[in-house]
Each structure stands twice: as C-alpha cells, then as structure tokens.
Please model this.
Amino acid sequence: MSRPPHAPPSPPAASDAALPAPDPAVPVPVRALPLWANPRLGLLVLLVILVVVFSSLRSEFLNTSLTLEPMQADLSVTVVVGLAQLSVLSLGHMNLAVGRIAAVSAFAMGWAYDKLSVPLPVGLLIGLAVGALVGAAAGWTIQATGVNSFVVTLALDFGLVGLVSLLYSGVGDGVAFHVHPAGMDSLRNDTFSDYCTGSVCGPPVPLIVPIALVAALAVGLLFRYARLGREILMTGSGLKAAELSGIPTARRVVQAHSLSGLLAALAGFLLAINNGAFSADIGSQFLLPSFLGPVLGGTLLAGGAVSVIGTVLGAAITEVIQTGLTLLQFQVEKLKIFIGLVLLAALSLDRVRHVVAERRGGGA
Amino acid sequence: MTYLADRLVKTFPGVRALDGATLRLQPGSVHALLGENGAGKSTLIKIMTGVLRPDGGRILVPRDDAGAHGKEPGPATDLVKGPSDTDAGLHEVRFSGPQDAQRAGIGVVHQERNLIPAFSVAENIALQSTPRRRGLVDRAAMRELARGCLDRLGVRLDVDRPVSALSVAQMQLVEIAKALATDSRVLLLDEPTASLTAEETEHLFGVVRRLRDEGRAVVLVSHKLEEVFAVADTVTVLRDGRSVAEAHPLADYTQEEIVNLMVGRAHAARRLDKAPVAPGTAPALRLDGVATALGHRDVSLSVRPGEILGLYGLVGAGRSELARAVLGLHPVTAGTVQVHGRPTRITSVGQALHRHRIGYVSENRKEEGVFLQQPLTRNVAVTVWNRLSRAGLIRDRDERDLLTTYQERLGIRLSGPAQLAGQLSGGNQQKISLAKWLAADCDILIIDEPTVGIDVRTKAAFHELIVHLASDGLAILLISSDLPEMVTLADRVLVMRDYRLTGEVANDTHDYDSTSRAIGHLLHAAAV
Model:
C-alpha cells in the first residue's frame, strides 16, 4: 500500500474523514483483492487439478462416450438448478422447493405431451409457465406475510410432495409419462458430433448443453446489466435502502422467486430429457446441488451479490468429484462422505484465502 | 452520600462531547439534567453508567458504596480533596463496564427499552440479581423479589406476565423496579415521559417522588420543561459539554431563564450567506392541513425553489414520519399535498421520485441511505437505471461517468468506482446518499438529520453544499434536531412537537441568540 509522502503516518483510515477540502485530484490507491484471491480463479484451478488427478488415476475419465458426454448432460441440469437457487439467493432468500417445483412442472409437461400431444417446445413453455407461477406464488406469500422464505418454501415443498404424487396417481401407471414427443430422443442421445457436413463433425457435446448455456448467459446478463436484475440485487443488499431509492421491492421479490421457479422447471425438463421420462421423482435430488454450485461459486447467502460463472464452476467441480470417485469405484455411501469433505475443504480454503487477502490488503 | 461526576471530559473524533461537565447528586432529591441536543447529556449518562470511560475528570461515590466494588484507581487517591467539604468520605471509582456502575449503586432507565420481551415481569426485574438455589433459578424467591420491588413503587402488576404484553408505561415501571432490585442509590431516567400519556406521566412522577422520599437520588432527563418544573428540586444545565448551571435549586429559575441557559452559546453559529427567495415564487411542495394515520394533525407548510425550510423538533416528534408520508410510505388521511401547484396523492417512493422528482436523504445512512455492500457506481445510479438502460441493458461506462460527475461536484473522496460504499467515511457516504437524488434530477429534496455522526469539519462542508444546492434552485426541506445547524442553514424554521407544528420562526435576523431562543420556546412551551 503506497501513500503520499506528506500524509501523516497514522491513523490511516480515520484521517480521511477529517481532511477539510476533499481534493479529487489526489488519487487514493485502489485496494482491489489480488488475482490469486479471486474466488473464481481458485475454482478454475481446483477444477483443473481435479481433472488432472482423476484422469491420471483412471484413463476412462477422459473417455468421451463413457464419461465426458454423460457428465456434460448431468452438468447441464445441475447448473440450471444452481441458477434457480441463485435467483433467490440474490435477495438473501432461499428456495427449498426447487426440486418440487421442478416435479410439478415436469408433470405439467409430461401431461401436455401425453394428453394434448403438443410439440416439444410448446410443452416446455407450458412447464416453464407452471414453474414461474408457483415461484411467483411463493414470492408473493413471502412479501405479503413477511414470513421467512425458508419457512414459506419449506411449506411449499411439503405441500407439493403430496400434490405431485396425487397428480401422478391419477394418470398412466402412476409414476411417469412414457411419452416421447418428436425431438426428445435426439435431444437425449445425440451430440453435435452426430451431425456432420461432409467430413466435418461437431464437438462431442450433447444437444441439451446449449440450453443450459443460454440459461446461464441470460441469468448472467440479467443480474449484471439489466435494471430488473440489479434492482433485485439492491433489494437483497438492503431492503429499506432499496425501498427508499424508489425500487418496487415487493414486485422484485415476486419476480426473483418467479424466475427461480421458471429455472427449476427448466432443470426439471432437462432431467426428464436425460432420464427419458417425465416421472414423479424428478427434482428429488435437486436441493443440495442447488446450493452447492452458487455457494462454492461465491454467491452470498446474505444476498446482494451473485456469480453465474462461479455457479457454473462450482457445479462443474461437484460433478467432476462425483464422476471421478465413481470411476475409482467408491461405494455410494463412501462417495457421499468424500463429496461432503471435499466441499467443506473447498469452502474453508476459500474463506481462508479471502481473510488472508483482506489482511494483506490493509483491511479495506 | 453525594454522588459526584467531577469535571468530566470526553472527546470523540472531531467532537468534544464533554468539556468539564459536573453533575452533583444529593440523596433524597430529584435532579433535572437539561440541555439541547448535542449538549452532552447522553455522553454524561453513558459515563455515569460505565458505558463510556471519560478522558478526564473523576467519578466519586460514597465510601460504603465504593467499598468492595469499583476498581480503585491507585494509591493516594483514597483521600480525595474535593471542591467542597461535603465531598469528604467520597471515593473515586473507575467503571470498566456497566456492571461496575451498577454495583456502585447507579441504575439507569434508558429511552430505548432494555427489557427482554419474551421474559416475564419477574424474570426481567430479577435479571441481574436472580436468586438461585443449588445452581438453579429459585422462581419463588424471584417472584417475591419482583413483587417487593413493585410494591415499593406502589405498582400493581402481575409478575408472571410477559413484558411484551405490557404497555409502554408499564414497561418503564418494570425497568425502574429492575433498578431497585439491584438496590440503585442513583436512578437515571432518560426521557421517561416521551411516550406516556398525561395520566401515566403523573403516575410515574408519583413513583419518582416515592423514590426520592426513600432517600435515593433521581436524575430526570427531559425536554418537557413543564414536567421538569413539576417534579424536580435541583437542576444542572449542560451547554456545549459544560455545565452552565450546577446543581442549582430549580425554584430560582423561570422556564424562560432555563431555555436561555440551554441555548445561549459561547461560539454562536452563523447563518451561511444565501440569496433570498424572490417574493412571489410559487411553492414546489405544499402541504395543507395534512393528517396521517400515524397521528399528524393539521400540518401545513410550503417550500419554494431556492428555499431551505427547517423542520426542527426532538427525536420522536414525527418529522421523519411526515417526510415518509409525503413520499407515499404512510397514507395521508386528510388535507392536500401539492407538488408544483398540482394536488397529488403519492403512493410509492418510485412515484415520488420518477413522477414528482422528490428525493429523500434518510437520517439512517447505513441502513437506508446507502447500500454498504454495493459499489459506489450502483449506489449513485440506482435511481436512474430506467434512464441509463439501452435496449434493457446498462453500460458500466455510463455509471462510471455519472459517479465521476458527482464525485467532482460534491467532492467525494473515493479510491475507485468499484469501491464499496461501506468503505467510505460517514461524510462521504452521506454525499453518495445525496448524489443519487441529484443524479435523478430531483428538484425537491427532503434531507433528514444530514450531519449526525459526522465530524465538525465535514459537517461545515456539508452545510455549504446544502446552501449551494438551494442556490441552484432546489427546494429543500431540512429535518434536524441540531439547533445550530438549523440557524446555519434554514430560511425559516418550523417546530414540530407530538406530530403537530407548534409555530414558525423566520431566520432572518442574523442574531443567533434571538432566533435560537424563539425556536427553543416553541419547542419547550407547554402543549396547549
């Protein structure tokens, strides 16, 4: 930290306030965190290390059709699930009903394909609308009652569990729709490498990956550059300050939860594609990954700051660990213990790095 | 048995809060501690109760109370040669925390309630002196203790009720009982009647007289002079951190003389030069007979472009609440609000901002004025994102340009646009809080307690800035409980008390004393 030679040696920070005529011509050194303390960079390094370790231990790790393609398909789902949680973490809220909103939306989609025989995109739109509506209802309840989002979405999740099984018991075999609308199978099985022009074929990337990428890009743009996303973040950063700055905070809360529901529905759709059926158990495994991606990626649980890139990286790390340990033939139970430990270590390291960086930076 | 705070000195960064204040308390008397906002009353109380430590001066308590409790400051201070003979037998103590003060027999009833709402009356009263038997709370003894304390006050109250179910007046009595439970010889009551009805006040004063007759010293801090004269025996008046009247019999003074003592000022504030508003200028904001659900009645005022209208009063008088009603956060139940001559009904801050160009600089800077965890660019641009966005997206460069504009115009010291608002000093945070309204082209600004917690020099710079903004044609409604600030800035001063306006003083004489006295009389005069 450099300071002008004429400045008094101490006290460092408090003296700023007492200086009479503020002179903007005197630049105060910018105290940004050093590069190595950037949490996103740390995640990227961790990801690379994990890939190197796993591929040297088991060469199958880099096998395209055995490992890489399924990993990408799985990752597409977890990224979108993470984005669904991120949308309300921006407010400092939680959505414990991400999984069940996905299940209800998946039911709506399966039903539309089965009973109405709508084309694939139309059914998707119906499912997204259902998810957005359920999310909006949760958001409205939270802002109208003032009850904590944790409680509201927990109750919603509980209610939806019952609703989903009731809905499925009224149709088909009671657990799933086995309808395959046109395009669903190629979305499930094909990669871009299956489509060739002459001798040039695409990369071995499943067709559903771009859907998740577009979602990530859209959410990223929303929170980074759009008025709506920024106002949601400001609402999360300081509710009273946001209200007194003219932001319609109640509406922003509803909108953020609605977005969360919509993304949960999209995740449900992607998982149904991967599974090959719109079934009652869709979303039942969503809750933990929905927090892992964003939180590993630097999104604050307190609200006011989100990172979409971090969420993608966080989800990727979780996915790589899971796949790698499976390849090393860990038992499922052991696998879960290891995933828990690795994640705890990663989060602690991140915190340590941040504290060290702040101390070196002079405690700005 | 005198308690004595002797020539206390306390300095905060940039402010000397106490500059040799002395408070001498006799047992068996009710002592009024008076002074304008900022005179040092709360600092004095905090030192007396062990919350703050003085930079200079001594606290002396009777020997038997000092005995095993307060820390002895060192050798040779045992024999205190005080200013008068009555100090013989006193003992200097240093409090290292509120517990020490409590053990020395000094109890306090704060303005902000200090009770645990979910606990019962008995549990609260016995909180610091809980009777135990074999390590567990002895509930029967606890109830007995609580009942005893309440009986001594002549108060009938079910000791098993949770405090949250009590009225404000009852909570106050519980707090006094709590102080009795620790056997306080000195009881400090900080604005005890602020939220009481006339009847409850009378009851409280009955309790105060009872405590006096028991031989305790009661210190009453109040802004309502008529009440002070009704119950107090002696008075200490603080001004600029000094005691200008010291333990004087109250009967020697009239209310008017007390007000003059409070507001008279060694280094008087000077009104800053500002062009007068041209006569005949139409008001930018005008309220006629406004009433609100919060309790405002018949509030009429008007602010013209280029004018600074002061709204003076104590904390809790309803000034900020009036501002919030104008912004649409509380419904206006009667009367009219006109903006630039058009009657309007504002229902949200967004509407006040985007349609009527009214901005509000909050008194609560850290929670309402700025977003501490957000970069400066967003803090300034938050009000104009609708205007900045192109095809739905906002460019960083536009925000940075906006910040640079106001950084230069308001003289904000910052290290870069990505700096978080929480990293700025209080004065610079306040400028950021102001900048967002200027960025939104507001022509009516409501500025609420702009310089609370800001050091003297930054305060002066901020005052010049406000005058400058008014000269540029903004209509400014300035809310403040800082009398010198009012006299420095306002063209006219309205005084609000208990959600009503009690009068108006034109600040055009350039005579600090006469103006501040006129305002002081409006504030302290008995409610009709």
The beta strands of chain A are 176-177, 196-197, 200-201, 278-279. Residues 61-194+201-329 of chain A form a domain with the ABC transporter involved in vitamin B12 uptake, BtuC fold (CATH 1.10.3470).
